[in-house]
Design goal:
Number of strands: 0
Radius of gyration: 13 Å
Number of helices: 5
Structural class: mainly alpha
Order of helices and strands: HHHHH
Shape: globular
Largest sheet: none
């Protein structure tokens, strides 16, 4: 389920207590385990391996889209 993946990535759906949301500072979310987790999730998402979620991407583009989605440039914004 998608909510389980979000929780594993450190951003459980509707569970942030403060109204300000999740922190944007790198210290809160940038470490090797978090980056690898987001990259793995992006690759699973674009390969339609996330149960209950279906994305429409040409199989020939799935890898490139996953790398772009899980890459640092995308996560920075």
């Amino acid at each position: 389920m998608l909510t389980r993946h979000l929780a594993r990535l450190g951003q459980p759906l509707c569970k942030k207590v403060e109204p300000t949301g999740y922190y944007n500072s790198a210290e809160e979310w940038t470490n090797s385990a978090a980056l690898l987790g987001r990259m793995n999730f992006a690759m699973a998402l674009t390969s339609n391996r996330v149960p209950g979620v279906r994305v429409v991407i040409a199989p020939s583009e799935a890898r490139a889209k996953g790398l772009a989605l899980g890459g640092l440039e995308f996560q920075r914004h």
